[in-house]
Specification:
The chain is mainly alpha-helical. It has 13 helices and two strands; from the N terminus they run H-H-E-E-H-H-H-H-H-H-H-H-H-H-H. Strands 1-2 form a two-stranded antiparallel sheet. The radius of gyration is 30 Å and the shape is flat. The N and C termini lie far apart (80 Å).
Length: 336
Amino acid sequence: MGPRGRDVSEVALRDASVSTGVSSSRAAVLRRLRLNDKIFHGLTRGAAFTVLALLSGVIIALIIGAAPALSTFGFSFFTSQSWNPVTEKFGALAPIYGTLVTSFIAMLIAVPVGLLIAFFLTELCPMALRRPIGIAIELLAGIPSIIYGIWGLFVFAPFLQKYVQPFLIDTFGSIPILGTLFEGPPYGIGMLTAGLILAIMVLPFVTSISRDVFSAVPPVLKEAAYGVGCTTWEVFRNVILPYTRVGVIGGFMLGLGRALGETMAVTFVIGNAHKISASILAPGTTISASIANEFTEAVGDLYTSSLIALGLILFFITFIVLAAARYMLARMNKAG
């Protein structure tokens, strides 16, 4: 073996022990990584199932709470506008009508204005003004809804009553079809006022999302359109809007969701009248406003159940709108 044989064997044994130690350490690290991955996987799964459980709990609670009213009135609950707590006769048609009309007015105004503001900020606005105007628009989203309601009741509604509504009545009152939309005395408050307040409230959402998606349009597409002689309007209509249609629809649906569920601002200015009128100047009510106004005063199980049934209806309206939007976006992505 020689005088160095023992040293060689000791070195070999030492290397083997080091290799074994490294292998065991590596295995421990891998086991720890697997454990951490399993824990993270479990946490993410638990978070996802928690959301589903909460949503299911809300639906079940609404169904249970609305069951007495739905079983008592049946389908007539959706087709009747009667709302009389004294005789316990309740119908949801007037709040449903008011919710849909005010949301339609809001989106009819907010979407075109928001798209034009977004296009101005991304394409036409001087650089020195882009940031101040953008911040001012985003600040509108941070104003509490009750502030909008107070401003609408004490400032905006009197202005409409004195100047705007008389003008609309005098201008369109004699036209056969449009006259029915603008007939009646100028109350100031009403569905038109509520729709205008909602339009102001949802405008920041539509504008912000539209501005972000407009900024993502490749400059080469716009430059090519300008290069072949397109006007600014043609570039906006034929290049920017088709390229960003998915994002624009997403902003529209986000604003619509806000308009459908808004409560305090609408409660101040809509008039809170449980009746359906063809005139958008007349007072009305929405589902959210009815619940906010009457839930604390509801006496009796049937009265409370009717208000909960209104909440259930609003939930399903929102669900249907969002489902239709997702289906539309899926079809557009598939076609594109």
